[in-house]
Amino acid sequence: MTKNVAGLELPVERDCPFSPPAAYELLRGQAPISNVRLTSGGEAWWVSGHEEARAVLADGRFSSDKRKNGFPLFTLDAATLQQLRSQPPLMLGMDGPEHSAARRSVIGEFTVKRLAALRPRIQDIVDHFIDDMLAADQRPVDLVQALSLPVPSLVICELLGVPYTDHDFFQSRTTMMVRRTSLEDRQRAFAELRAYIDDLITRKESESGDDLFGRQIARQRQEGALDHAGLVSLAFLLLTAGHETTANMISLGVVGLLSHPEQLALVKADPGRTPMAVEELLRYFTIADGVTSRLATEDVEIGGVSIKAGEGVIVSMLSANWDPAAFKDPAELDVERGARHHVAFGFGPHQCLGQNLARMELQIVFDTLFRRIPTLRLAAPAEGLPFKSDAVIYGVHELPVTW
Amino acid sequence: MRIKADTGACVGSGQCVLTEPAVFDQDDDGLVALLTDHPDDQSAAQARHAVTLCPSRALSILQE
Q1: Looking at the domain assignment, is residue A3 inside a domain?
Q2: Do A348 and B56 touch (CB under 8 A)?
Q3: What are A351-390's pLDDT values in tens digits?
Q4: Domain range for residue A307?
Q5: d(C-alpha A53, C-alpha A25), whole Å
Q6: For residue A96, is it within any domain?
Q7: Nearest neighbour of A110 by CB, restricted to B30, B49, B56
Q8: Cis preceding linkage at B21, omega within 30
Q9: pLDDT tens digits, residue range B8-23?
Q10: B57/A351 CB distance under 8 A
Q11: The CATH number of the domain where A374 resides is what?
């Protein structure tokens, strides 16, 4: 490999809560694809540019299978990888026809039309938790616990047929799993959640429920054989990805809008701007940076760089979403810029399955929250909030708000 | 303008439907279904935008 930057090790934590690490700018300024050293050991290609990020993620010559030798350990460590190797792969880690078959078995559940039918129920859920917030005796209220976590958790529970009464259990395990610290805790959380979901799927196999898993089980039986391990993997992915990410985006979106009053005023003046504001907030924070790592299975020429078979590639969605070639003045939060081409949900065949559910939840939450509590404000300075700089999925641990 | 949708490449992300529902739909399995392959002048710009947003490059413009 050609060394563009010597001595820089990744991952690095965000030093400012509202912008990518300075190292990202440095790397992108030198080349859209560079070579970096990883803290976990070894080297990898680091993809900074928006165009190059989309090119890599849409290219079938790159594998997503984390179990393969040489896969770059960026947000993963060797021990977690060992655990992944002992389990059937999640959809995120599949390639080609295997991935296509797994994805196609569920995409019908996530069509724009199917999701639109959920809108009234999601609105009820959001109103319910805001009612509770307004009825609380004490202020400030922690928005994470009052709204950000409960809304997507209840929505995904109802969609999947997971009892919401178990929310403390699965929320705490998921939060633990995506932290970069305390390996033992993470492994225990992973094992406990996996066991819980295994039991849940076993129960569902003996019932006939009208929820996503009830339908998956019925369909698999009709087609011949029940794939219990595959269902457990799918449930694990949908439950964890379905609440933690959206919860973090709700919190950060509120912080972003409250910290940019002129942008919030635009949204309040015309809720027609909310969908665009959601896209801009997704771009601005890009909470799942670095989860899109790949392994070249063939020699590939991209962005003037020749990547050899067996070399690891890390696509930084955060860097791509702050590439001035794709987004003018990327450090400006501009709800009117038209940011739909961001890659916060990834790109290529693995692009987030639940993205349109997330969009809808975020739109409904922001519209309803600022309409019903127009004087909402942060009860602590934004810069001092406990940001999740140590987590794979960015967010805030707590968000004290008042009105 | 004429567009083409490749259901073999489609991954059901729904980006096209979200962008121009007058041209793009999804079938019950989540795969792209064209409502028309000749978007009218009103839909042309958004249809073009949808082509650039498709994550699996399943959409193409055959003729401007």
Answers
A1: no
A2: yes
A3: 999 999 999 999 999 999 999 999 999 999 999 999 998 7
A4: 9-402
A5: 15
A6: yes
A7: B30
A8: no
A9: 999 999 999 999 999 9
A10: no
A11: 1.10.630.10
What's the CATH number where B35 sits?
3.30.70.20
A321 token code pair: 């979403």
CB atoms within 10 A of CB A60: 13
Residues of A in contact with B18 (CB under 8 A): 112, 356, 359
The secondary structure of A244-275 as a DSSP string is HHHHHHHHHHHHHHHT-HHHHHHHHH-GGGHH
Number of domains chain A contains: 1
Q: Using the beta-carbon criterion (under 8 Å), do A347 and B18 form an inter-chain contact?
A: no
Q: How far is B6 from chain A (nearest CA, A)?
A: 13
- Residue A149 inside a domain? The answer is yes
B21 → chain A, closest CA residue: A112
The boundaries of the domain holding residue B30 are 2-63
Test the A interface: residue of B7, B13, B26, B35 with most A CBs within 10 Å: B13
In a domain, A314, yes or no: yes
The span from the CA of A213 to the CA of A224, in Å, is 16
Mean pLDDT of A90-117: 94
Which residue from A107, A347, A348 is facing B30, i.e. has the nearest CB?
Answer: A107
Kindly report the number of other CB atoms within 10 A of residue A400's CB atom: 15
pLDDT tens by residue, A29-76: 999 999 998 887 889 999 999 999 999 999 999 999 988 888 887 766
Number of domains in chain B: 1
